[in-house]
TrEMBL record:
It comes from Thrips palmi (Melon thrips). The keyword Methyltransferase does not apply. It catalyses: glutathione = L-cysteinylglycine + 5-oxo-L-proline. One of its GO terms (cellular component) is cytoplasm. The lineage of its organism: Eukaryota, Metazoa, Ecdysozoa, Arthropoda, Hexapoda. Belongs to the gamma-glutamylcyclotransferase family. ChaC subfamily. It is an enzyme of class 4 (lyase). It comes from the Eukaryota. This is glutathione-specific gamma-glutamylcyclotransferase. Catalyzes the cleavage of glutathione into 5-oxo-L-proline and a Cys-Gly dipeptide. Acts specifically on glutathione, but not on other gamma-glutamyl peptides. GO terms for biological process: glutathione catabolic process. InterPro entries: ChaC, GGCT-like, GGCT-like_sf. GO terms for molecular function: glutathione specific gamma-glutamylcyclotransferase activity. The keyword Lyase applies. Keywords: Lyase.
Length: 202
């Protein structure tokens, strides 16, 4: 079994896996449109975490990390992820393109070192009760800068995700993600560096 992480699973795994691959899925966009009243906020003061929305452009890409789960760990990891993603997320199958394949290889299902393959992702559909989009960048930034949950501050989540995407796909420009990062930094009145936030933090 393979699972794709595009939010906190990118830097905070929390389960055993055999190997991981950087890469992307196509036809989706990543958005901070999912309320979080547990991990990155509390009831009455929810934070925001990411979900995926189908894109009108089939060539849009969302980068992240795919994890291969050993057969003997599948049941345990599934139970753990179902609980972790319990607030409005559903499992769906999508095609994952490993980073060592060019875009044209994935589109035509031609072989690089690894072919595209199906895997599981957790998505907060726009019909779930925690979906709150679309929101303006300013409104998202105000919510994020003031939110904290049992897994830490909402800013930490945002900054870890932005830094992870710079590492995984340095040539990709995720306008939604990086514009939101800049807006939160402006509200905090801090330098543009986010080095104080560790990718290994809870």
């Amino acid at each position: 079994m393979w699972v794709f992480g595009y939010g906190s699973l990118v830097w905070k795994v929390g389960f055993p896996y055999r190997r991981k691959l950087n890469g992307y899925i196509m036809g989706y966009v990543r958005r901070f449109y999912q309320s979080s009243e547990d991990h990155r906020g509390v009831p009455g003061k929810p934070g925001l975490v990411v979900t995926l929305l189908p894109s009108s452009n089939p060539k849009d890409r969302v980068w992240g990390v795919a994890y291969e789960i050993a057969k003997e760990d599948e049941e345990m990891v599934t139970v753990q992820l179902d609980h972790r993603e319990k607030d409005g997320y559903n499992k769906i199958l999508v095609t994952f393109c490993p980073a060592n394949n060019l875009l044209t290889d994935c589109e035509n299902n031609k072989s690089g070192n690894l072919d595209p393959f199906e895997l599981v992702i957790y998505v907060g559909l726009d019909t779930n009760p925690w979906f709150c989009g679309p929101l303006s960048t300013e409104e998202m930034a105000r919510r994020i800068v003031n939110a904290r949950g049992k897994s830490g501050s909402n800013q930490e989540y945002l900054y870890n995700l932005a830094n992870s995407m710079r590492d995984i796909a340095p040539d990709e420009e995720d306008e939604h993600l990086f514009s939101l990062e800049a807006a939160v930094q402006e509200l905090e009145c801090v330098p543009q560096s986010t080095d104080t936030f560790s990718r290994n933090s809870a």
